[in-house]
Structure formats: C-alpha cells, structure tokens
Amino acid sequence: MTTPGRLWAWPGELRARGILGINRRNADFVLPSNPRSHYPRVDDKLLSKRFCEERGIPVPETYAIIEQEGDIRGFPGCVRDRPQFVIKPASGSGGRGILVVAEHDGVKFRTAGGAELELAEVRYHLSTIISGLYSLGGQQDRAIIEQRIIRHAAFERIAVGGTPDIRVVLYRSVPVMAMVRLPTRASRGRANLHQGAVAAAVNLLTGETFGGVCKNHVISRHPDTGETIEGLRIPFWDKLLDAAQKLAEALEMGYIGVDFVLDATIGPVVLEANARPGLAIQVANRCGLAHRLEYLDAQPPEAFAPARRAELVAALSGMK
Amino acid sequence: MNARRATPWVACLLVVLGIVLVGLRAYTRRESQLASGESLWRLTYTVKFQTEKAGARLSAAFPFDSAHCRVFRQNVLHPELQPERLRSPLMASREIDLLTLQPGEQSMTARFDIHLSRRARFRANDQEPVLSTQARAEWLRSDKMVQADNPVVAETLQNIRRDTPESGDLVRRLFEFCHNQIAAGEEGAPSDALGTLQKQAGTPLGRARALVALCRANKTPARVVTGFVMEENDSLKPRVWVEVWSGKRWEPYEPENGFARELPYNYLAVRRDGGEVVRLTRGSGLETQFAALRLPPGPGAGRPKHGSLVALADLTRLPLEMHEVLSLILLLPIGGLVTAFFRTIVGIRTFGTFTPTLIALSFVFADWRTGVFVFVFVLLAGLVSRAFLDRLKLLMVPRLSTVLTLVVLCIIFCVSLLDMLRLTPGAQAVLLPMVILTMTIERFYLTSEEDGTGFALQLLAGTVVVALCCYVVLRWGAVGRFLFAFPEAHLITIAALILMGRYTGYRLSELLRFRDFGPAHKPKESRP
Question: Is A32 among the domain residues?
C-alpha cells in the first residue's frame, strides 16, 4: 500500500486539480442533464438493451426473460441448449444478483467462480430476483437469462476470477474519461472498485492503459498476478468509443457512464449504462473531471456535432 | 444556471419570513393581555411520605379542563417513583398512580399553570351528555360514609317531602335543608352522612355527604366533588361540594356557602369520587401541601381566541395531552436537518435515510440505558436469526415479515424481562421503531454478504454516529420548547435544507478520499 504524504487534502487543492465531488456531480451535472423520466432507460437493463439493439450496438444475446414466479418452471427448457449463460436482474445495480453459469447438465450448475449449485438453488435465485431483492427500491423485478461473455485474450493475465469491464464517462455525448476495471481475488471476481477491484485509466485517443488504483491507492501492477497494468492497448477502442457515443445520444442522458466488456469474438459489448457514474475514475486517471466538464460547457453548440467530436476528445485527453 | 441563482433568494426569503413571523408572534405574545375576568394561576402540590417497603401506591388527582379553566402547562416531578398510569376514569378526573420502588423518604411535586376565566369560554372536558348505566349505578350506590339506604336517611327524605310540599323542586329543597338545618360542625363533628343527619351538624364533608345520601335515597345520581377554590394561599385547603345529575347535566351545589346550580368560576374540581386529592396506600406519614399563586400574564396563556388565524399557530392552546405528540412531530425536521448535514457535508453513509433520526427520536422519549440494552439485544438476535433464515431460502416479503415478528417478540420479551428485574420505568422506554429495526437488520445482513462485513460495520457505525448526533440535538429541551411555541421557525429549517441542497462543495469524506491529489504528494508506488 502507499504511504500517503498526508491524511487529507484541502478543498482548495482538490479544486485546483479539478476534482469533482459527489455533491457537485449531482447538483451541476446529473440533475440538470439527466431528465428523471429517462432514468428507466438505464435502470431497466431490458430497456437499455432494446435501445442498443435498435441502433446496432452489440449487447449480450438475450436467451429468455423470466417475468413471473410461474415462468420459473420453464427455466430448464430455456437453457437446455446453452452450455453457458448469465442470470441477472433487470433492475439490479452494482453487479448484485448476477449469477454466471459456466457449465451445467440441467441438474447441477457450476458457476464461473467454481461453486456447484442444484437446480432448486438456481430456481430460488430466480425467484429472489423476481421478488425484487436486488432491484432499486425493492420493486418487483424480472430476471434476464443472457449470453455469457467470453473474456478477450487481451486481459488474460491481469484479470483474476472474472471479466474486466471498461467504463467510459460521457458528457453531452462526448467521451470525457475512461478506465478499465480489473477483478481481483479481493473483489471476488467482480469489477467493483469498492470491493477491491483494480482500475487503470485509459487514454481516450489511443485506448492505451496508464496509471492504476486499488482501494483509492495508486498502483501500477495487478495485486494478485504482479503483471503490469500499464501500457496495455485495448482492442477495438475506436469501435468502443463510437458505440458509447451512439448510446449516449440514444438514451438522451447528458451525463452517463457506459460499461463495456470485450468479448473474444464480438468485441466491445455494452453491459449497462449508469446515470450516476462513480468518481473513482478520477483517481485512476490521476486527474479530475471538473476541468474537462467545464471545458465542454464553454464550447459552442456546433462543436458537439458528431463529425467534430473527435477534436473535443483530442483536446480533453490532453488535459490534466 | 437558473436553479443556482434562485436558491439563495428563496432561502433568504424563507429566513426573513420565518424571523418576521417568529418576531411578530413573540411580540404579540408579550403584549398580550388577559381579557377582563381572566387570570392565570399556578397550583402546586408538594407531597412527602415514608414507606417501609417497596410497593406503596400514591394516587394524586390533577386539575382538568372545564368551561372556566384550562390547564396550559404541567410539570410533575417524582424522583424514584414509577408512574403506573395516568387515567381518566368515568368520573372524568385526571389521576396519576405512582409506585414506590425502594423504601424510605419519598416525594412528589406537581405544578400546574391554569388559565381561569369568568366567562365559560373554554372547551369543557367534564360534562358527559348522557349517564351510562354503569355510571348511574355508581352514583346511586350506598356505602360506609354515604349511607343512602339507611332508614334514617329515608325518613329524613320523607319529612322533607312532607314539610315543604310545593316550593321548588326536590333537589333544591334537599339542598336548602342541608344548608339551613344542618349546622357547620366544630372539630370532631361527624363526617359521614348518617352521623351528620342524626346530629344535625357536620363537617363540610359530612354536610356534602348528607346531601348526596338524600339525593341517592331519592334515586337521583349525586356525587361528592373535591377541589380547590383558587385564591392566593401558601397552604390551600381542599374543598368539597356536591354535583347532582339533573337528567341533562351535572349541577353543582355547595352547602357550606350556599351556592346552588352554579359555582363561582374559581372553583376548581380535581376529583369526583369524594376522596382526598392525594391518597396513599401502604405508606405512612403522608404530608401534603397545596399552594396557589397568581401569575402575571405570560407566554402560553395569552388569549387563544378560537377561530382566529393567530390562534391557529398557537399550539399552547391545545389540551395538554396533545403537547407531547406535537412536540415530537415538530422535532422530526430537526432530525432531517442533522441527517442532511451528515450526508451531504460530512459524507457519512448510513443504513436508510431516516433510520438514524427515527432511532434517536425513540430514544428521546425513553430511558437511554434500557433503550441501548434493548436495541443491541434486538439487533444481535435479529442478525443471528436472519443468518439462520437465510438457509431456509425464503422469499423476500415472508422473510422480512419473519424478521419483523422476531423483532417484535424480542422487544416484548425485553419489556417483560426488564419489568421482572424492576429495571425499567415503563413500556414506553423500549418502544423502538420496529419496522426500521427490521429493515436495518435486513440491510446489514445483505450488505455484509455482498460488500463484506467491514463495509456493513462501517455503515452501522455511520448510522450510530448520526443517530447519536440527532439524539443530542433532539434532547436539547430548549429546541423542542421553542419549536412548540413557534412552529413557523421551521421556515428557517427549510431554508437551511434548500441551501444544503445546492451545496456543491466537497464532502469532508472526499477530502480524505482524494487526499492523494494534494500538490506536495508525488504518487508513490506500492509493490504488490
């Protein structure tokens, strides 16, 4: 772990570095630019998926949707021909309630983490999803059974026990900052930073990783494998940025984070969008968001035309 | 940014409005004068006694609202005595029962601030529209001191009927008889109805009982009332008079001074079963002292005119029983203010937004030691049983309800246990918000499963810290009293909340979180 020079930073120092705080993120960016009526588009994964599919943005293929307790009976039939699949709640958040099945024979199910589950246990999991255990506000929910993403070889040595995801934060449909989140043993295979996953910044122009953070501390090697996490080029980067912009435009949300995973064959696949993307991306980039967002706010409307966005991205990626 | 510019103005407007309204009300209250024929009094009970062993019972009757009288403030102090209940039985009296917990010297002080009015202008609380069968039987009963079924009483009644055939109604004639024919007795005169009638003389109580016995022999419900005549006096003597049911209402008769059907407005009833104002069982050496003192006009006793707009905001005009509940409701926004401060400015995370407030609020009206004991016990028991329930793989709502049931059982068990150990001053000490506790247990369990026990404990610690701060603020009695007197001060609370709602600075927790961005610091690297 690092030995930080001091225990805290003064507000003036953070302001000078352009660090965005939660209050300002919510009051100045999330509330004014994300209309409440559009929230279901990101909170409901089925709706997000439909938005993506309509615009040709790749998403994991949906095998089945289980809407009611009664539908659970049909579950074994849905997955008979699918050796691997993922069960996830349609309105879940933070990776909760997601079950990745790597192998099964219709009676016993083995998860990606190696645990053995009986059919009854999987059915119970489905019914907890439907009863709203993982949904925002405990509302009745739906369970999605979808394609399992096969990790791209690029991340072979720096992701432990799970699939890394790539987060792009967009403001007014312009990519502002990006990072890749790598699961660790501590995060139990999930790419959640507050559970101990590692994050590395991604250069917006080149798609190359730099920097790194784990539990708010600066690192540059993966804590489990010791491999360097810097200087890694993310495949299909331009395709990924393009998809992120298209999705941001389609969702009509001014300030969002889009999460991608890289599939071995399809390439970048949208996992979900988030109306309140976290602030740890700043630590990973060792750079604040505020200056970049202010820069965009100062641009004339014509600068945001799709053809000219590349200029904005170039200007932003050089900002410190 | 429109919102950013408008916010300070809205907040300013609310603060100014709040200050102006509070100021105006404070000014009018100070200026308020009592109407002619109205006065403010302070009635004080001082009670002392000894007990050889625990379990002695003191019951004291308190003054209550009538058409001429309004109790607007009440303060009862009884160190080391456990209140059993404050009851309003069928005789429409307010009575408190106190139990002794330890032997020795005991004391109780009660103070009432009373607004008296010559005109019948308050909402009366002491008249029942019809007499129930039960009440009728009670007020026709014959007993050891009011011997209504004694032949002597029946004979006296017959004589009065015969002697004064047609002058006025019978109750009036009975009253005249007691007032004129029965002499005010000296020391040692009989104080029961029979003795008074036989000797043609009696104490004030004896004369009142004689009148009641005659009425009851005539099958007219009647009762002895104990009370005070409000006049400035350090040692006020309780007085007795009689109330007779006229078929529509209770009419007062006072044989001692000869008032019939109507009493002067400064007669204040406290008990209607003929007993002493303060009674003691299984104790000795009861000393009671009653004092009445005239008060200058002051806050809380202006002139609450019914129907005026100013009176609407004046909560002190409401009956005493409502004061506590309303104060509690008025304190809730302060809890919200504390929570908002901790969440948006300090950045402490908690389970649920208002969980800390509600827990703190339940502790304000409870004994905190028993409260903490029950809280910790319920939380631990809940978590253990929740972990066990997880193995049963129950669906969410039945599972939550199971936890709720367990929480309820735990609390009930705690109440019973504390009572058995004689540790609690009453059941209200442990009335924790049960639904909130259930949700906290559920969230704690889920968080520790999903994000690790460390994170769950961090949230729990945050909840406790915020609840503690809420508790400190809510316990601050001056806040509650001020808000009760000036509820419009909450406009300032809203202003503070609006300003906090537009606070875009860093949370204190973020100064720690982003500390690596300090300028002097070069990111040092750690080797895994």
Answer: yes
Say what the pTM is: 0.72
Does the beta-carbon distance from B526 to A14 stay under 8 Å?
no
Residues of A in contact with B527 (CB under 8 A): 221
CATH code assigned at B248: 3.10.620.30
Label residue B125 by pLDDT band (50, 70, 90).
low
Cα(A313)–Cα(A176) distance, integer angstroms: 7
B146: helix, coil or strand? coil
Instruction: Tell me the per-residue pLDDT of A151-189, one tens digit each, with 9 for 90 and over.
Output: 888 877 787 777 888 999 999 999 999 999 888 887 776
> Exposed, middle or buried by CB within 10 Å (0-12, 13-18, 19+), for B357?
buried
Mark which residues 74-133 of A lie under 8 Å from B by CB.
96, 121, 124, 127-128, 131-133
Q: Are residues B332 and B437 located together in one domain of the fold?
A: yes
Say if the ipTM goes beyond 0.90. Answer: no
Biggest CA pair distance of chain A: 60
Q: What is the pLDDT of residues B175-219, one digit of tens each?
A: 888 888 888 877 778 888 888 888 888 888 888 999 999 999 988
Q: In angstroms, how far is the first alpha carbon of chain A from the final one?
A: 25
pLDDT at res. B447: 84
Residue B190: closest CA among B198, B386, B163: B198
| Domain identity same for A29 and A73 | no
- Which of A2, A21, A32 is facing B505, going by the closest CB pair? A21
Do residue A130 and residue A168 come from a single domain?
Answer: no
CATH classification of the domain holding A191: 3.30.470.20
